[in-house]
Structures are given as C-alpha cells and as structure tokens.
Amino acid sequence: MSPNSTGNGALVPFSGDTNDSLSVYTLHHGLSRPISRVAISWSRGNSLRVSLFAEPSGSPDAGDGAKVVEVKLGGGDPEIDDADWRRIAYGSVAPFALLQSRRSSISALSKSPSSYHSDWWEHVLQYSKDITSLFTEPKLALNPIIEDPNEIVQNKEEPTCLKAAWELMEIFYVDKQSQAWQPERLVDWLADYDCLFTSTQETIHGKLVDFQNDLVNIQVIEDDPRYWEVMSSALSVGWLDIVVKMLRLHGSYKLDQLSYRELENGLVEAVAVLISKMPRLRHKSAVGNLGDCFKSKPDFIKAWEKWRSQITKLDCSPFWIQCDNKQTREGLRNLLQVLLGNTESLCTASCHWIELYVSHFLYIRPFTTGIENMYTLAQKCIQLKPPTGTHRLTGLMIGILAENTEVVLAEISREFGPWMVAHAVELLTAGSEQAEILLHDERYNLGGISMMELHRLAYAQVLSSHALTWQIAPIYLTSCMKQGMGLLENLLYRQSVQHNNLLLKNIEICRLYGLDHISSNIMKVAGVYHWKHGHKGAGVYWLQQSQDTNCLNRIAQQLFDSVGKSISDESFKQWEGVIELLGSESKPAGGLEFLHKYRDFKKSLQMVYSGKSADAARQAAGSLVLLMKNPSTPQRFWLTLLYDSLKLLNWKDSPLLSVSETHLLLNKLQELSLARQRPQFTEPSLPHQALSSIRLALATNLGRAILDE
Amino acid sequence: MAVTAISETSQIHRFPQYKYIHAVRWLPVLSAFNRFAVLASSDSDSDVSSIEIHSFKPNPISFDLHSSWASPSPISSLKASQFLQKSVIAASTSSGSLHFLFADSSDGMLESEVSVPENELHSVGKSCIDLIDGGVECVTVGDDGKVNLVTVGDSNLNYRRLFDSDGLVSYTAVKWASPVEFATGGYGFGLQWWDQRKPGDPVSQFKGNWDTKLTSGIVHSIDIHPSRKHTCLAGGSLGTVLAWDLRWQQQPIILSGAGAGNGAGNTAVQSISESEVWEIQYDRCIKSNTSSTRILPAMICSEDGILGVIEQGEEPIELLAEPCAINSFDIDRHNPLDVICSLEWESVAILTRQ
C-alpha cells in the first residue's frame, strides 16, 4: 500500500526485497491529507474493503475526510472469468450430487466402508464426462459451407488449460476401458491442447499456424524449407491428416506440371498413402483422422511389422535417384525417417518435450504399457528437450506420471483453485486405493478431518462468500461428515432476512436438510426485523411461524396500545386483517389471542345492538366473562370492555351474569382502581360517569342474580 | 450460446446470461416476425441492475440483447402490456421507486421512461405491481401495507393512495380483475378483493381458517382469468395453489400443496411441488373439452425447479424439472405454446411446446 504522498508513504513498513508470498496492491484513494486511520474488512468474494480516514482538518474545504476502496485480491484465472466460473460451479452441482448419491447407495449395498468397487470407475467416468461438457462454452457450431483448401489447422473452439488438465486426469485415473491404448489417448490429448503450450515456448501448433499465415505469399511450396520442416513436425506428433493434406499441396499435383513431374508425384503420393495407412493401437479413430485402427495387440503387431517393411522398401527404392527435385527428395526421405522412428529426426522435428514424448510412443515404442515405463521415458525426453519455462500443465503431467498424488493435488490447487481440487478428488480416488487412503484418512493435523473433506470445505467457503453461489454450498457442506453441518448452520444464519425471496430460499434449504431449529430461529429474526420496520403483520406472521410465544406476548402489548377504544370505533376494522392472519385459534398467537376473543365478543355485542335476541345477549355475556377471566386481556381494556357491555349488565328480561361472574367483574374493577395509583397507568378516554355507571350496573345485576338464585 | 434439448413434449433452449435474472416477461409486440423478451437483471460483478430487451429468433436459434435501461436498484416486480402502438413495461424496484418504460411495438427499441421516485409510493421493501391489460394503469402493493394506483397520462403521471393498512397487513401479490376491481394476496394465505367503486377497505376477505391443518404460508402470485372474474387463483408457500371463488367464499379449492387432500370437499390431489410457488398463470393453451365448472388449467413455477401445468382432478404435468429454482415465467399471449422462464443459476430458458 503506497499512498501518493512523497517519500515512503507506506503505512506499514516493508522491505523492498519481496519474496513470492508478498504481493503489493496500489490503492488510489485521492485523499489530499495524510491518512490517520485504516480499517480493513472482507467484502464480497475475495475482495477487501479498505476504509481510509484522513487526519482531521480545521477548514471545511480541505477535501474528503475519508474514502472506502475495494481491493480485489489475486489476479483471478487468466482464462476463465468470474461469471464463467459461476457457470461451471452451477453446472457441476448435479454431477457431483449424483456421484455422491451413487457412492452412498453402493456402500449401503456392499456394507463396506470403502467406496472402492469393481465398476465404480464407470460412474466416475460418467461424472467426468458431465463435468467436461461444462468446459466448452455453449456456442453455436458454425461449419463453413465452403472448405478452404489452404486451411491446414482448423480454428476450433479455444481450448482451456482447465479442460486439458481435467482430461489428463481422466485419461490416467478414470478411464479403465482405454487403459490399453493410453499412449494413443495422450496423442489425441496433445493434438487438442498443443496450442496451450505456445504461451511459454515454441510448439508445433504454433509453427503450423505461422506457416499457414504465410501460405498465401509462397509461390512454389516445395521449395520452401519450412514446408518440409513443418510437415515432419506435424508427422512426429501423429497429425496424419494435416500431413497428408499438406503433401497434396505439393506442386507436382498441379495439372499443368503433372506430365513432367510424374515420378516425383508418384513418390509424394506413395508417402502420403503410407502415412494414411499407419497402424494405430486404439479403439476407434476420431472423426476425420487417418490411420488403420486395431483393437487387439497381436493384430496390431502384425500390421505394424508389415507397414514398417513397406516403408523400408520405399526408403531403399531406386526411384529416389531418378527424382531430380532435391527439396522433394530430401523432404520426403526425412518424413520416412520420422516414420521409421529415427531418434535424431524426431528430436529435431519436435519443439516441446511433451511433443517428443508423444512421438516416442508413436514411432519408437508403440507397445509401451505401464506407467513406470512412461515415467522413465518422460524423464528422458525432458533431458533431451529441457523446458524453457514452466507451464501450468507440465507440473501436473509429471506429478501424474510419477504417481505422486500429493504433487498432483498441490499442482491443481495452485493452478486451478478450490473448484478443481474439490471435484478432481473424485478422479484421483477412482482407481487407486492408495490415493483413496491418502485422501479419505482422517488426520490429526487437520483437526480430525480428511484431506477430501478439507478441500470440499474450502470450496464451500468460496461458494458461501458470493451472493449468487451460497445456495449451492450446502450440497458440498452436507457431503462433509465432520464439520459440514456446523458450517452449514453458520452459513444459514448469516443470510439476510430482509428480502422475503431470499428468506424463503433459506428456509427451504433448512427444510431440505431437516434443520428445523435453524429455520425457526431465522423466522424469529425475520419477525423482529419486520416488526421493527413497521411491517407489523409480516412480523406477527414470522413470529407465529417460529412459534415464539414470548416475543408475540411482548409485541402484543405494543400492538394493543393502538387498538380501537370502543365498539363504535371504526378503526377496529383494520384489525380484521391481522385476525385473519393469525388464523384459527389452535395456532400459537401468544398475547395476540386476545384479538380473536375481542372480535368474537364485539360480533355478538353488535348482534345484541342490532336486534333484541336473548340468545345473542347471553352469548355476548359469556364472551365478556371469558375475556375478563383471560390473563392475556390487557388491563387497560377492562374498563372499556365493561363500559361497552353496559347494555348486557342492565339486561331487562333477566340478569345475564351469575353471582360468581358478577363477583369476578367487581373484583376486576377493584384491581383496576388499585392499578390507578401506579404512575404508568393510562386513563381510557371514557365519559366521566363511566366508572360509576358500571359500578351501579354491576351492583344491580348482583342484586337481581342473588334474587334469581 | 444456446443449449438446446428436445424432449417428447417440448423443445427447450437455455441461454446463460452471466447475471442474476429477477423476472422475465414476453413483450407484447405487433410484428409477426420479431419476438422480444424483457429481463430484469442484476450484474453481481458490477452491481448494475437493468431492464433488458432481448430479441428471440427460433431459426437459427438466438437470444441477443437488443436494448437496455439501467435501473437505480434491483427490480422486484416486472409487468409488460400493450397500449396503443407502444409496448409498456412497468417495474418496481427494491428501493421503492416505480418505472414505466415505453418501447416501440414493432422494433422493440426503448423510447422513453417516466418514474415515481422512492418513498412516494412505498417505503423500502418489496413491492408488487400489476399493469392493467391494454392500458397504463398500475396498481402497486407492498410489505408496508400501502395500496396505490398509478396512471400515466399524456404528459403527466398521477398517483394516489387507495388504502394504507399502516403495516398491519402486508401485501405480496396483486392482480387486476377488471378496470375497477383487483385482488391482493399476503401473509397467512390471505386474499383480499378490492373495488374502486367502494373506496376504503377491501370489499371481501378470504377467510383463512377453513382448514386448521394447513400450515400457513405466503401468497406469491395471483391470476384471474378474464372470462371468469369471480375466481381468484393464488400460488404460494408449500406448493400451495388454491382457487377462491367469490361466490362460494367459505370453500376454497386446493389444486396443489401440502394441505391438499385434507380439506373438506377436496378430493385427494397430487402436489406438483412442496416448496414456494413463485408465479402462477392460467395456461393460455386451453383444450376445448375443459368443463365450465372446473378450474381452468394453470401453469406454475417453483423454488424446487418445477415448471408445470396443474388441472383440477388431473395428474400434474411437468414441463421442466431444473436442479435450481425457477423464479418467474411468462406465457406468450400470441403463441401460447412458447413459455419463457428465468432460472436461479443466471440463465433463461425458452420452452416451445409441441
């Protein structure tokens, strides 16, 4: 951090000789005065929010006093931006969840704790394919209608290192079916991803692209030494179709030259035919690729020997002497040397050690199997072609070939981040029990969790830190046996309750994972939030949902402060909505249940006033007694209730209240007059004579009731 | 950028948007060749919320940004309608402002905007709006319990408060029934019927205590069919879809939900979803043999990723089952076979039913 002041403006001194672990971010805060205080907190994702406070100044026009800036840590992935990472994160949820459920159903069936199963790899392969499909950005396939004859390298979708790394792991760890032709899969892999290595050093793909760009300027193609050089390079890594296509660009194919370059053309065509007939030990060839494919090794060996003898025969043929074009003669014979596996030719033809490595499989050791041999061969190739720079993929490749799971984990974690590790762990453990033990064993130094769980937790933390991805974190957290649930509870508590949609999504997650106690707490928080913000109805709803009678009792007191004062009061109508909201009486409503009873009482009282039904009056009197008995009825309504009921107390036909009921009401009246002495008592707005008329009515009723009984 | 999947019943195109889509609507247009959709989006990287018009072309499939308008805060409710020669888009924001956008009906370009500023209609919090069919009259309701009517005139914008519950009742959904009547929904599966000819309180309230076993929930969306104005269809929490017939107020018809099958008079029905039903609309593709006594088929979308059609007394039909929530959808009024929906995972899907 270096403010733009003169000299060393750094707030925290640090020495100039930085090592790798220290990165410096320059902040542009634009404050004119020196900074006196700095506050740092986490912002969204991996951003830091830095608040800078300037020294206080006496004059009002000294500029801003403080500034808040956000610093995004880490450069992010150079290939994949944040939005695309989110797309991959969303897409990988379903394959991950499916694999986890398969694992648990298999281990439930086999009753063994280990998930290792004879055909488990097939499920992992399906998972791997599903994940791979996410790496290609969904684009429209636009096939040009007219094929460009001069187009050697097709402009396919831009491959990413992420996809290349994933496929490399799939080849070595998961795909048991094609283990026999692993070297050939490596050839295909390099054909797809050779261009990625261009970023650090020269590659065959890079040479091909350069040559293609110059193609329009070349008059006689076979006279250009680069033509032959590029072809032998492409041949060395087995791009047969490209080589054959380039050979057919040879000048001797031109109609006007065919007559006098017949022999030369024959040689070119013979080499082209030999190349296109190269035997390959593989399941099936990719679309458009040349070569004869053999599934079984004996058939392949037979065909290989026959093909080699054909090359040798052509190499010793007398026609070469008759061919008078020196460039063609030497170029073609060099191609034959590549096909015959001449180490020197292969070494000159290739650029990167991986290219040389692949050419060894193709032409020198086509029968190689077993990873130990592959590793020694790789070391030999690195010696022959020492890498000029380190590439994201080579470290991973060496780790895989050296069968070192820890190195592989470290490489993918450093180069591709937490998403990659959390998901690639499934590939690493697919076939190797050793890797499985390494990753699944609980470790003391990790706080009793396994490495697999650690990486999943780390990924879940990344998801949790973003507003759009936190909802998928629970899927990863619940797959973590030890610490997952605790972190999930934390995550759910942390979400905002402000917006209903978000709140309901949160509660839905609680429901899915059976976390009723958490959803109840969340609803309680939401209830209090809405209550405080004046959304009384919403507050009551959420508190009722969380069954928090305590809180409901408390807010009931505040709510009743504004309830209508008398039956004639129109304002009681607005309470209808809240009463509807409270629903049936069986639901917990805390102190609010008074509203229900009050409404029932008012209804029957209204009936009494409208008509003179004795039954209605008796019902109303019953409601009144119930209300007065109920402890949830606020004291401040007692007098109002009694005053409203004067008509009932003075009922003409017969007394509606029994002796004991009248005593109860009198007692309440007594209690009220005692309460009056307290300072916080609020006087209801009733006429002056209200109290005396109630007293009189009660006394009369008592007298009549005694007489009746 | 499209991913296309073909199932037996429909063709589905998915379009990743790389931003959160709050709501989506088809834009009613006059042209037969152009199809436009309105998206309310929020870009989480830049914190910019906007209303975007995308043009949809079926062959070759494309869904491209056509024009957009930056909103001051995220959109909480979005509606589109046709008025004279213009397409009208109404949107309320989470900060309480209301915006009307006018787009050319033939080329889908945004032309003008008028708005009601924050705190005039609602305090901060979610508000919900409905735009009258073929007009520029908009009713807005909110968590704060206010009900407002906003009308766009030739040169001015008028708004007045129809009701204020003072926060005692919060409203979460609203739908016009006729030029003078509308229905609102809220907490506790509450439904209210309003008539502007009788100002003040709602003229009718749905009695919520018809079934004590039903756990309470929130109404998220209401629809009223123009041919059956007496029936109010509501969707909400716990997969609940219910029809409230104003003529038979005591007995709602439960079409789906956790409480379905328990209520008196309701035959056992299968629930299409168990979580929040975010939006409900009558399915505009009506089969001819639909009985007049039955509730018309309706389409819903839900938090557990279901887009489906439910019909009284029939098995529900699932059109889409996504691993993430479907937050909103809209049926094209001119081509009712086409449905657009917005998915939680920053994408939009367009369904063409066979």
From TrEMBL, chain A:
One GO BP annotation of this record: positive regulation of DNA-templated transcription
Main subcellular location of this protein, as a coarse class: nucleus
Keyword annotations from UniProtKB, A to Z: Membrane, mRNA transport, Nuclear pore complex, Nucleus, Protein transport, Translocation, Transport
Gene Ontology MF: a single term: structural constituent of nuclear pore
Localization of this protein: Nucleus, Nuclear pore complex
GO cellular component: a single term: nuclear membrane
Xref: Pfam families: Nucleopor_Nup85 (PF07575)
InterPro entries: Nucleoporin_Nup85
Quaternary structure annotation from Swiss-Prot or TrEMBL: Component of the nuclear pore complex (NPC).
Described function: Functions as a component of the nuclear pore complex (NPC).
Family stated for the protein in its record: Belongs to the nucleoporin Nup85 family.
Record protein name field: Nuclear pore complex protein Nup85
Organism: Vicia faba
UniProtKB/TrEMBL annotation, chain B:
Main location: nucleus
Keywords on record: Nucleus, Repeat, WD repeat
A GO CC term attached to the entry: nuclear pore outer ring
InterPro entries per UniProt: WD40/YVTN_repeat-like_dom_sf, WD40_repeat_dom_sf
Compartment annotation: Nucleus
Repeat in keyword set: yes
Full protein name: Nuclear pore complex protein NUP43
